[in-house]
Write a structure and sequence with these properties.
The protein is of the alpha+beta class and 157 residues long. Helices cover 16% and strands 38% of the residues. The chain has two helices and eight strands; from the N terminus they run αβββββαβββ. The chain has an eight-stranded antiparallel β-sheet. Strand 6 and strand 7 form a beta hairpin.
């Protein structure tokens, strides 16, 4: 009975997250380009970016439900976050390969750490996930219940 309640709650969370991610946003009139102050997170010209640290989803339609990531050493962990940050569920635990040049976009294939994700109810079962860093944003595709969306995250200060 308790397991059914947990599964139902998790499915409701996924529906809320993906409904928010796939809904039409109001145009800011800037053609989808980030605001001028968003360039602060970009690395200076010709400097290899340091991607370690905390990241938060920028394209979630809800302030209460989003994805967050932590890059540390040679690993990246991504979580579904809900309840204004009170609830976190593992979505991805995988490898991180730091950039060696300042060229953008920078891409790497993160390999899933199945030891961490195999028992996480909301975790991706993909063996690899392609991550992209460009213009201060980290992005990747997330899929659940037949819906795929590109998640975009920005480094937190």
């Amino acid at each position: 009975m308790k397991k059914t309640a947990i599964i139902t709650s998790c499915m409701a969370l996924l529906i809320i997250l993906f409904t928010g991610c796939s809904s039409t946003s109001k145009s800011s009139g800037n053609g989808g380009t980030p605001p001028a102050n968003a360039t602060e997170s970009k690395a200076p010209e010709n400097q290899i970016p340091d991607l370690t640290g905390e990241w938060k989803q920028t394209n979630s339609k809800s302030d209460e439900s989003y994805q967050s990531a932590t890059i540390s050493g040679d690993t990246i962990e991504i979580y579904w976050v809900s309840d204004n940050g009170d609830t976190k569920s593992l979505y991805w635990a995988g490898s991180f390969v730091a950039p060696t040049t300042a060229d953008e976009p920078y891409k790497w294939d993160s390999k899933n750490d199945h030891n961490k994700t195999e028992n996480a109810l909301l975790a991706s079962s993909d063996d690899t996930k392609t991550m992209t860093y460009q213009n201060g944003l980290l992005s990747y595709e997330a899929s659940a219940m037949g819906t795929t969306t590109t998640v975009k995250l920005e480094r937190q200060k």
